[in-house]
UniProtKB/TrEMBL annotation:
This is ABC-type xenobiotic transporter. The chain crosses the membrane at residues 7-28, 61-83, 140-161, 167-185, 431-452, 458-484, 618-643, 649-674. It catalyses: ATP + H2O + xenobioticSide 1 = ADP + phosphate + xenobioticSide 2. InterPro entries: AAA+_ATPase, ABC1_TM_dom, ABC1_TM_sf, ABC_transporter-like_ATP-bd, ABC_transporter-like_CS, P-loop_NTPase, Type_1_exporter. It comes from Teladorsagia circumcincta. Residues 138-372, 713-949 form the ABC transporter domain. One of its GO terms (molecular function) is ATP hydrolysis activity. The keyword Translocase applies. Keywords: ATP-binding, Glycoprotein, Membrane, Nucleotide-binding, Repeat, Translocase, Transmembrane, Transmembrane helix, Transport. One of its GO terms (cellular component) is membrane. It is a multi-pass membrane protein. It holds the Pfam family ABC_tran. Residues 13-233, 433-679 form the ABC transmembrane type-1 domain.
Length: 952
């Protein structure tokens, strides 16, 4: 309760006091029952002698019915106040703890983050908080109530030792003999549970980290078969729209932002997956410029830009760095020619420094050699022009509607989850045995009522002893077996949901509701919720067949509200994941406070809803407890009416009501699980909806043709738009042909569709119109896993996983020898660096490869592609993060690696693709011109202008 306010302490104190009182008054039920039993026993004796005074008997029965009714009202009032206070206190504290947890994480340094796993941190934020909520919420009320009942019951027992009940205190002492045994058992089980919980938390944290990592890098998983108003969100909050637009204009981003369907209000998706690499880079530059900093740090700021954009942005950066200190890191040397001082490093030491002209004057110097290595040859040759034909607008719209129809057919809605849970559990034979023991356990209380009813005749304690032994055996057996079944079910459910997530195509992950934080939060917190209801389900269905209608109505209302609450909590969950995943960017912009405030604002609405839901849950639990006592009043009053009309006897009424009494006790015990049950139904609905989601492109399917492939690629009149921006066509009649063994390079401005072509070849998406084919086979007819097994991708932003270097290189392969791994590493110019590490190939690279530099990560990604020996090699800016020296060596390695293979290359650094067999210039989603380097230079068209700008 550190940092708790006066209101929190007031709610806590109120909850503690009223919970204890609520438990303490429950034993008075026994006192009332004693009086009622005495009345009925005496009535039965007089009835058998025909001496029953019905009026006196009726008066006594109605008196005790009134006491039952009064006790029920007291339990309702006191129970509601107790539960409502604890629920409110719990939600208020959890809301604050979550915010403080995020703030504590955000203030850590990079050393700490390098030792952590993003998924584990977010998992603690979700399921970890749920565990705390269980401990200080309704469970605390149950513990305090049990303590109150213990004290109240024993006090009442000693109190009744007065007068004619002088043996009662001795009986009370006999009953207290079991207390030390129970306390010892509780302490032992508590330690065992604590140890198991720590191990469980560690295991689930590791699993959550893995899930977070895999979902965040899902396109890499797919590729290897391993399955902008926001622009100033981290800038100055006081900026006007004009300031933001000016920064975008300077960064050459204003044009493409205005062309987006929602302009500056376009949601760019988690990790900005809706934007090309160049577009993301320009937004990042605008974000830096809008702050008007005194010190500007540029780490490969234009590496992802095409030549045209780079030229414009470089001018903007030259202007922006006037009157401010600027440190620029660049591998593309044309971007730093005008620097006041250029410092050349080699193996951690400064080897040269000076202006561009001074360093170029040093014959045989390191810098001069780098510049010459990046120079682009100029030759002469004829060129050809191939502009994609325009498709009829009506045809494109029909394709869009067809895609939407297919998507609607495969999407499903949340249905009642109960039968799904039953179907899942029926896969475990142990569940059947557990169910039998549960049925036998359910017979305990009816048998007890029959034996207890024989008090009218004779009391034999041996029956109670036998019943106690049987109850202990059945309770232990059903509890342990259902516990084991629940754990297995939880594991199976988690794996099934995760497996189905891995099946989804790229459009599923483009949906903002399917961000990494949301999906991993469901895996972390929803599965334990469903597991909790598994223990409650047999009791709900076989011990208490039906409870009263009010509770059912409240349950349905809470279920409805709970679904709305989960939807409103998505934004807060996403902010947490983004904050932890992008810590370096946030700390560089000094926006930890901003992200904290953003989270608090997003969590406010779910917090308010949770408070209201807590009040309804408190009412439901209080109604359940009071219902048991009020039920006695009604039942005995009805029994009196039967006796007065001579339709029954006191003995029969007593025995029947005792049977109902035990059933009512089951209702009261089951009511303690009611909040968990509501959460479980909601979580089960979410989890099973995720499991039922059927992708348009099943990434784990083995269906389809598997012909021997050579590696020819063809796009015929392809039209395409991303599912989240269907009105914006990225490809508009793209025609492209790549023959087996050819190297074809795609160049053009950012957003012209180059990376989209690779995504269609990888079959992350299907085209709206036209065909994408491999060796004349429509790619949709081929086995998707077979196609990807014959491809390898090196992306612009390499995704490495938190495993060893060896495991990253052989990622997606079942078998791979050490010699093959080392050979691929040598080709990628990374072997020597790996061998210099203490653990060599067993070195863990950290989350997203955080322990490696950008160039090192890229070279490991290249090795990962080479080791697969693919028929088709896809390179999306594969050398963009490398320095000039490494780039030259890796380029030579790639030249060797692509011999005999089809190679599709995307490059902004034109020096890397001048030896390509065919260079295709893209503009507005079409092929504008193509040919060899010499042919395009001779034409002096678009490509010629790009080269001229890059050589300046």
């Amino acid at each position: 309760m550190r940092g708790a306010s006066f209101i929190d302490y007031a709610f806590l104190l109120t909850g503690i006091v009223f919970s204890i009182v609520n438990g303490a008054i429950l034993p008075f039920n026994s006192l009332i029952f004693r009086g009622m039993a005495d009345t009925l026993i005496a009535g039965e004796r007089n009835h058998s002698r025909n001496e029953l005074d019905i009026e006196v008997f009726s008066s006594n029965v109605l008196f005790y019915c009134g006491l039952y009714l009064g006790l029920g009202v007291a339990l309702l009032a006191v129970g509601y106040i107790a539960n409502a206070s604890l629920y409110t206190m719990c939600e208020r504290r959890i809301h604050i703890i979550r915010a403080k947890y995020l703030r504590a994480v955000m203030r850590q340094d990079m050393t700490w983050f390098d030792q952590q796993q993003t998924g584990a941190l977010t998992m603690k934020m979700s399921s970890g908080m749920e565990r705390i909520k269980d401990g200080i919420g309704d469970k605390l009320g149950l513990i305090l109530g049990a303590f109150g009942s213990f004290v109240g019951g024993n006090s009442l027992g000693f109190y009744l030792s007065r007068g004619n009940y002088h043996f009662s205190w001795r009986m009370t002492l006999v009953m207290l003999i079991t207390v030390p045994l129970l306390m010892g058992a509780t302490q032992v089980s508590g330690k065992l549970l604590s140890r198991a919980s720590k191990m469980e938390t560690y295991a689930y944290s590791s699993a959550a980290a893995l899930a977070n990592e895999v979902i965040a890098g899902i396109r890499t998983v797919m590729a290897f078969n391993a399955q902008p108003f926001e622009i100033h969100r981290m800038g100055d909050d006081s900026l006007s729209d004009a300031d933001v637009e000016e920064a975008c204009k300077v960064a050459n981003a204003l044009g493409f932002i205005r062309n987006l369907s929602e302009g500056f209000n376009t949601v760019i998706g988690e990790g900005a997956v809706q934007l090309s690499g160049g577009q993301k880079q320009r937004i990042a530059i605008a974000r830096a410029l809008v702050r008007n900093p005194q010190i500007l740090l540029l780490d490969e700021a234009t590496s992802a830009l095409d030549t045209e954009s780079e030229h414009a942005v470089q001018k903007a950066l030259d202007k922006a760095r006037e009157n401010r200190t600027t440190i620029c890191i660049a591998h593309r040397l044309s971007t730093i020619r005008d620097a006041d001082k250029i410092i050349v490093f080699d193996e951690g030491h400064v080897v040269e420094q000076g202006t561009h002209d001074e360093l170029m004057a040093v014959e045989g110097g390191v810098y001069q050699g780098m510049v010459k290595a990046q120079a682009i040859d100029k030759g002469e040759e004829d060129t050809t022009l191939d502009v994609g034909s325009e498709e009829d607008t009506h045809r494109v719209e029909m394709a869009r509607e067809s895609a939407r129809l297919r998507q609607s057919m495969i999407s499903t809605s949340t249905q009642e989850p109960d039968w799904e849970i039953e179907r899942l559990v029926h896969g475990f034979p142990m569940a059947g045995i557990a169910l039998i023991f549960t049925l036998l356990r359910g017979l305990t209380w009816p048998l007890f009522s029959i034996i207890y009813g024989k008090l009218f005749l004779i009391l034999n304690s041996i029956f109670f002893l036998l019943l106690a032994i049987g109850s202990g055996i059945t309770t232990f057996a059903s509890g342990s077996l259902f516990g084991i079944t629940g754990e297995k079910m939880a594991m199976r459910l988690r794996m099934d949901v995760f497996k189905n997530i891995m099946r989804q195509d790229a459009s599923y992950f483009d949906n903002p509701n399917h961000n990494t934080g949301n999906l991993t939060a469901h895996l972390a917190s929803d599965t334990p919720n469903v597991q909790a209801v598994r223990t409650f389900q047999p009791c709900r269905k076989f011990v208490i067949i039906m409870t009263f209608f009010a509770q059912s109505s409240v349950a349905q209302y809470l279920k409805f509200r709970g679904q709305r609450d989960m939807e409103s909590a998505v934004e807060a969950s996403q902010i947490v994941t983004e904050s932890i995943s992008n810590t370096r960017t946030i700390q560089a912009l000094c926006k930890e406070g901003y992200m904290y405030e953003a989270y608090c604002a997003a969590a406010q609405e779910p917090h308010k809803r949770a408070l209201v839901r807590g009040l309804w849950q408190a009412l439901s639990l209080a109604l359940s407890n009071s219902f048991v006592v009020v039920n006695f009043a009604i039942a005995y009053a009805f029994g009196l009416w039967l006796i007065r009309n001579e339709w029954s006897t006191p003995f029969i009424v007593f025995q029947v009501i005792e049977a109902l009494n035990m059933a009512s006790m089951s209702v009261m015990m089951a009511a303690s699980y009611f909040p968990e049950y509501i959460r479980a139904r909601i979580s089960a609905g979410v989890m099973f909806t995720m499991m039922r989601q059927r992708p348009k492109i099943d990434n784990m399917s083995h269906q389809g043709d598997k012909p021997a492939l050579k590696g020819d690629i063809a796009l015929r009149n392809v039209y395409f738009s991303y599912p989240v921006r269907r009105r914006q066509l990225v490809l508009q009649g793209m025609n492209l042909s790549v023959r087996h063994g050819q190297t074809v390079a795609l160049v053009g401005a950012s957003g012209c569709g180059k990376s989209t072509v690779i995504q269609l070849v990888e079959r992350y998406y299907d085209a709206l119109c036209g065909t994408v084919s491999i060796d004349t086979y429509d790619i949709r007819d081929l086995s998707i896993r077979y196609v990807r097994d014959n491809m390898a991708l090196v992306g612009q932003e390499p995704t490495l996983f938190n495993v060893t270097i060896r495991e990253n290189i052989m990622y997606g392969l079942d078998k791979c020898s050490q010699e093959e791994i080392e050979h691929a590493a040598r080709l990628a110019n990374i072997h020597d660096f790996i061998n210099s590490l203490p653990e060599r190939y067993n070195t863990v690279v950290g989350a997203k490869g955080a322990l490696l530099s950008g160039g090192q990560k890229q070279r490991i990604a290249i090795a990962r592609a080479i080791v697969r020996d693919p028929k088709i090699l896809l390179l999306d800016e594969a050398t963009s993060a490398l320095d000039t020296e490494s780039e030259k060596v890796v380029q030579e390695a790639l030249d060797r690696a692509r011999l005999g293979r089809t190679c599709l290359v995307i490059a902004h650094r034109l020096s890397t693709i001048q030896n390509a067999d065919n260079i295709v210039v893209c503009r507005d989603g079409r092929v504008a011109e193509h040919g060899t380097h010499q042919a395009l230079m001779a034409r002096k068209g678009i490509y010629y202008k790009l080269v001229e700008r890059q050589n300046r």
